[in-house]
Amino acid sequence: MATIKQIRGTTVQNNAGDYTGAVEGQLWYNSTDASFQFRSFTTVGSWSTGGNLNTARLLAGGSGTQTAALAIGGQAAPSTTGITESYNGSAWTEVNDLNTARSAIGSTGTQTSSLAFGGETAATTVANNESWNGTSWTELADLNQPRKYLEGTGVDNTSALAISGFNPGTSYLANTETWNGTSWTEVNDVNTARAGSGAAGTITSSLAFGGQPALAVTESWNGTSWTEVADLNTARGFVGGAGTDSTSALAFGGNVAPGAQTELWNGTSWSEQNDLNIGRTQVAGAGTQTAGLAFGGEIPPLSNSTEEWTGAGAPVTETITTS
Question: Which of 84, 266, 277, 297 has its Cβ near the most Cβ atoms within 10 Å?
Fold first, then answer.
């Protein structure tokens, strides 16, 4: 019988574990699992179960990636909380709390460099702004407009966008503010005032979608102004979001039954995807369009569930089996 080397002109790569450098169709021998494996790519995105939060909550902030994320504050029984948890791709670990416990906050950044702004304490809507350095939170300059149910986008704790929100004294807000690492500056408003929207992107390229009151409206930010683009297929508020810029986003969950709807944005339109395994509203999000993270929210009751999104085109390791 001919060997792989005789057929292909090369031997099978030997690797201790998953061979992350493999290209599509490449075969290797996993010496750790004593199995032959090969690289393929997903054709349809789907959600899988991740590690549960230690503290079930809704209206938390989220930042980071699918394998290195933060869950920030939120509403936990029986009141708002400052609890912060760090995710390593399989489990959550409690780290230092926010200085001001609150829920319905805006947030953005990475696991080691995040910003949390606005929200609601047990008593009032606030403008508080805190910076995370990977170890602890530090209070910085407040937002110009106190608000809750706002969204945030950005890269780290020196560059952020605060989008829309709600203030009991002024109702739904269209305000947009940019953060330069020192202070907030008011810039051009979104076209449609809203609260509880989803968002994705950076300070120069963001997307805001959905929100209260029962909106499907999507707007794109180019660093200067907002432009209305194609609507979500399902209008909803308190939707989760993930993504890297205004051309690549994921929307999931929300307050329209069954609360599991997932949609993908390609820069032009939204397409329906496989639903969350657990439908929920007021869910937090992190990550990218192909590697997203959804955690917390309300089913009801409060949820500690985490789900990991693997989008179409993501690499997958397949194991060759015999029968």
Answer: 297
Cβ–Cβ under 8 Å, residues 125 and 158: no
Is 116 a member of any domain? yes
Query: Does one domain contain both 165 and 227?
Result: yes
> Rounded to whole angstroms, how far apart are CA atoms 70 and 67?
10
pTM of the model: 0.86
| Phi/psi of residue 207, nearest 5 degrees | -135, 135
Cβ atoms of 249 and 263 within 8 Å: the answer is no
Only one residue has tokens 């269209």, namely: 174
Number of domains forming the structure of the chain: 2
Residue 62 token pair: 């989220």
* C-alpha distance across the termini of the chain, in Å: 20
What would the DSSP string read from start to end of 148-199? BS-EEEEEETTEEEEEEEEETTTEEEEEEEEE-SS-EEEEPPPSS-BBS-EE
Distance CA 133, CA 111 (A): 9
Q: Are 217 and 209 in contact (CB under 8 A)?
A: yes
In 3D space, the residue among 16, 58, 46, 11 whose CA is nearest the CA of residue 298 turns out to be: 58
Confidence of residue 313 (pLDDT cuts 50, 70, 90): low
d(CA 88, CA 111): 10
Handedness of CA 274, 277, 281, 283 (dihedral sign): negative
pLDDT at 1 over 60: no
Asked, for residue 273, whether it belongs to a domain, the answer is yes
Does 129 share its domain with 249?
Answer: yes
What is the structure's pLDDT at 41? 58
User: b/e per residue, 238-255, with b = 16+ CB within 10 A?
Assistant: bbbbbbbbbbbbbbbbbb
Which amino acid is present at 108? T
pLDDT of 95 over the 50 cut: yes
